[in-house]
């Protein structure tokens, strides 16, 4: 979304993307307390995370457990804090409730599923691309094809619907999610990946997706006893000054990690030079969990069936005849 310009007020180009990272403390500000050079940490960053050296205010930095790898730590903050805030701070998840989460194979979707498993008797409905079902089937109670009529499938299993809907798609899924809510149920929009439709920014495709969004009538919400909410972790941190609240949430999550109740799902590791291919994997919804840019990793040699070649100048030259093929650069972490 940043690349396509769909984020509200992004910095002017050239910019370095990235909102979270992990690494070793190399230097400290004069007034910084509680950290030492050499500490293993993870951090939120307001852009500029895709780099070998990152600078961020101390309120966004957290020490990581000794048994947590750097790749796990880089996959941890955004996904798990987002999932925790929506489930427990906004929707008040309790025993016996039900949750519908879209993109169940993604980083937030997997974090939602893991956190739901820490509460007794929570039913998780998930949508995901069919090819991901085998890998994630054990993490959700009921799994549906993202292109199928999941509304009817959910109602067939639970006639009343669900207590919580977590929507990262937007578009016509907004109306579907609201229709599935039980009385006193909560719908939370935390993303709009359906707005990312092509390789480049298109006003017409964006407008079409936006026009499909259900127009919410407050009187209807009142009559049906439904709650509609939105959540943006980046705005909460960097625009609304809630770093103290988030630190408390991170502490709780690290406690759950230490108890081995949650664990970040890492899809794959990529060299910085492979960022184009990594972003394409996300764009194609091919990932299960988080993709990590590893500054110490060397680029993986191209496979024989990949038509992308690198010239001596470092520019990539593409054979567009092979663009329709599903290209893989490297084995993925299980």
Automatic annotation (TrEMBL):
Originating species: Pipistrellus kuhlii
GO molecular function, one term: oxidoreductase activity
InterPro entries assigned: ADH-like_N, ER, GroES-like_sf, NAD(P)-bd_dom_sf, Quin_OxRdtase/zeta-crystal_CS, SV-ATPase_mito-regulator
Name of protein: Vesicle amine transport 1 like
Chain positions covered by the region annotation Disordered: 299-334
PANTHER family: SYNAPTIC VESICLE MEMBRANE PROTEIN VAT-1 HOMOLOG-LIKE (PTHR44054)
Family annotation (Pfam families): ADH_N, ADH_zinc_N_2
SMART domains xref list: PKS_ER (SM00829)
The entry's keywords: NADP, Oxidoreductase
């Amino acid at each position: 979304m940043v690349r396509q310009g769909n984020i509200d007020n992004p910095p002017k180009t050239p910019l370095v993307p990235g909102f979270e990272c992990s690494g070793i403390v190399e230097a400290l500000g004069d007034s910084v307390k509680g950290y030492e050079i050499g500490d293993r940490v993870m951090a939120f960053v307001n852009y500029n995370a895709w780099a070998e050296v990152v600078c961020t205010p101390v309120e966004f930095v957290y020490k990581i457990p000794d048994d947590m790898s750097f790749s796990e730590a880089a996959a941890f903050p955004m996904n798990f804090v987002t999932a925790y805030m929506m489930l427990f701070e906004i929707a008040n998840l309790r025993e016996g409730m039900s949750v519908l989460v879209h993109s169940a194979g993604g980083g937030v979707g997997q974090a939602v599923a893991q956190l739901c498993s820490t509460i007794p008797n929570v039913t998780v409905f998930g949508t995901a691309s069919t090819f991901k079902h085998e890998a994630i089937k054990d993490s959700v109670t009921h799994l549906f094809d993202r292109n199928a009529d999941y509304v009817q499938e959910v109602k067939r299993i639970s006639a009343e619907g669900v207590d919580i809907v977590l929507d990262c798609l937007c578009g016509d899924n907004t109306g579907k999610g609201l229709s599935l809510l039980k009385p006193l149920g909560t719908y939370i929009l935390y993303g709009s990946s359906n707005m990312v439709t092509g390789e480049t920014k298109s006003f017409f495709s964006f407008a079409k997706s936006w026009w499909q969004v259900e127009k919410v009538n407050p009187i209807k919400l009142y009559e049906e006893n439904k709650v509609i909410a939105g959540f943006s972790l980046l705005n909460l941190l960097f625009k609304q000054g809630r770093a103290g609240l988030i630190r408390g949430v991170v502490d709780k999550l690290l406690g759950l990690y230490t108890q081995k109740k949650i664990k970040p799902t890492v899809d794959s590791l990529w060299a910085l030079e492979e960022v184009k291919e990594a972003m394409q994997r996300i764009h194609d919804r091919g990932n299960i969990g988080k993709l990590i840019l590893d500054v110490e990793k060397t680029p993986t040699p191209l496979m024989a069936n990949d038509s992308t070649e690198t010239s001596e100048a470092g520019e990539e030259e593409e054979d567009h005849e092979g663009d329709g093929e599903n290209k893989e650069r490297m084995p993925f972490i299980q």
